[in-house]
From TrEMBL:
This is 1,3-beta-glucanosyltransferase. Keywords: Glycoprotein, GPI-anchor, Lipoprotein, Membrane, Signal, Transferase. Residues 1-20 form the signal peptide. SUPFAM superfamilies: (Trans)glycosidases (SSF51445). One of its GO terms (cellular component) is side of membrane. Residues 321-420, 433-456 are annotated as: Disordered. Residues 438-453 have a biased composition (Low complexity).
Length: 482
């Protein structure tokens, strides 16, 4: 009976998905995202079953397929994933997300590969750069990859601002690699901690200087709107003023203060109102699965669970999204804003304007390609200089392997017939740990049905996909009942 319930859920998803569209790439225009000529507002969830500090990849297992129907119930158009294994194949999940009109914003770092805020210079090495470039290769082929976060909350206090220099370096490197090796441009940005002492400095710093150095969007992890708050009480009104002249898209990369039980999510209405849309491009609610930090909106009991239990916060968020449609206009965005001025160096802001060059032994990856992804089992880029020797990079530069997944459908093609689901579901990963300890507030995304993604997407071939899926699932059910 367990299998029958799962199969019914998948079939229900496919039935609802028969009229869904394949995603077209999201682009940046001024301080907003667009799909074609229609503004795109981020309305989504942070999604890392297993926890953002764990080496689990929710996009390489069938847990993703299990969860998409719940994404659709909420009406979201975007998920953020913090950790993946770049040696795995992600076609099944990414194509299923695309069919559902859902985009991915991906953090290119993992617990083993990142800019270490305590030792940023040492961790900015060829092992790290190869990992980042290989991750770009793996996910650059999908039209529903909205963008990449080059880093998350590396600057989290007045004493870690010097690390921003190396965040800016990897943003530059990623932009150069995408330009040289990818078929289309994919935006690169940063997800910032909402730290009062340097909130605006990090935003200005990553948006100043030459174009090849600048971030292309800016996420803010903000938890200051708690319960039945307001623009004034939460400080959101001041943040709108602070970012009014910001020339690139800014959105809430995490939000959803949980100090109030059964969160009402009334900040959704503010986020998608004309009080904010001229500056903010939506947001991502933290988070999908319940973990010890108590931010989840669903409960997944075990690592291999096939069922999901929705919690009161799920229903509250669903109601908030339903009440507040995504705006159908351009929201008063600014098309031709100017880059920021670089903040001056002070005792509380130590990032350098002169960005260090790429390490010599990493330039081969930029020129020739990142080669074979090493996955989460590869050597880590992180070490303590005073106690450990620097890790040895034995990577071989070259084009990405052809067996690491295929391109998903572009706006001018339709996928070959066949369902995105060929099995019912299998393993699942449990919840995610918060990466942020601030008590600031943040806002949430709203329903997807009126977003630019579905409105502009072609629909050919999906009827065949549904028929094929029914055939596959019928065979599966027959086998289960024997």
């Amino acid at each position: 009976m367990h299998g029958l319930k799962v199969a019914a859920t998948v079939l229900a998803f496919l039935a609802g998905n028969a009229a869904a569209g394949i995603t077209e790439p999201v682009t940046v225009k001024g301080n907003a995202f667009f799909v074609g000529d229609k503004r795109f507002y981020v309305r989504g969830l942070d999604y890392q079953p297993g926890g953002s500090s764990e080496l689990t990849d929710p996009l390489a297992t069938d847990s993703c397929l299990r969860d998409i129907p719940y994404f659709q119930q909420l009406g979201i158009n975007t998920i953020r994933v913090y950790t993946i294994d770049n040696s795995k194949n992600h076609d099944k999940c990414m194509n299923a997300l695309s069919d559902a009109g859902i985009y991915l914003i991906l953090d290119v770092n993992t617990p083993k590969f990142s800019i270490k805020r305590e030792y940023p210079k040492e961790s900015y090495n060829s092992i790290y750069i190869q990992h980042v470039f290989a991750t770009v290769d793996v996910f650059g082929k999908y039209t529903n990859t909205l963008g990449f976060f080059a880093a998350n909350e590396v600057v989290d206090s007045p004493t870690t601002t010097g690390a921003a220099t190396y965040v800016k370096a990897i943003i530059r490197d990623m932009k150069a690699y995408i330009k040289k090796h990818q078929k289309r441009h994919i935006p690169v940005g940063y997800s910032a901690a909402d730290v009062t002492s340097n909130r605006m400095q990090i935003a200005q710093y990553l948006n100043c200087g030459d174009e090849e150095l600048r971030s292309e969007f800016h996420g803010v992890n903000d938890y200051s709107w708690c319960g039945e708050s307001t623009m004034e009480i939460s400080g959101w009104g001041d943040k709108v003023k602070n970012y009014t002249d910001y020339s690139i898209p800014v959105f809430l990369s995490e939000y959803g203060c949980n100090t109030v039980p059964e969160r009402p999510f009334n900040e959704v209405e503010a986020l998608y109102s004309d009080k904010m849309t001229h500056v903010f491009s939506g947001g991502l609610v933290y988070e999908y699965s319940m973990e010890p930090n108590k931010y989840g909106i669903v409960q997944i009991d075990t690592l291999d669970a096939k069922d999901v239990k929705t919690l009161p916060d799920f229903d509250n968020l669903k109601a908030a999204f339903k009440k507040t449609p995504i705006p159908d206009d351009d929201g008063g965005y600014k098309e031709n804003g100017q880059p920021s001025k670089c903040p001056p160096r002070t005792n509380s802001w130590e990032a350098l304007d002169d960005i260090p060059p790429m390490p010599d032994n990493a330039s081969k990856y930029l020129e020739l390609g990142a080669g074979k992804p090493r996955g989460t089992n590869g050597p880590s880029n992180q070490y303590i200089p005073s106690k450990e020797q620097a890790p040895t990079d034995t990577g071989v530069a070259g084009p990405a392997p052809t067996d690491s997944g295929e391109d998903n459908v572009s706006s001018t093609k339709t996928r070959a017939s066949g369902s995105p689901f060929v099995t019912a579901t299998s393993s699942v990963f449990v919840g995610g740990e918060a990466t942020n300890t601030q008590t600031s507030g943040s806002a949430s995304p709203s329903q997807t049905s009126s977003s630019g993604a579905d409105a502009a997407a072609p629909r050919a071939g999906l009827g065949k996909m549904f028929v094929a899926a029914v055939v596959v699932m019928t065979s599966f059910l027959a086998g289960m009942m024997m």
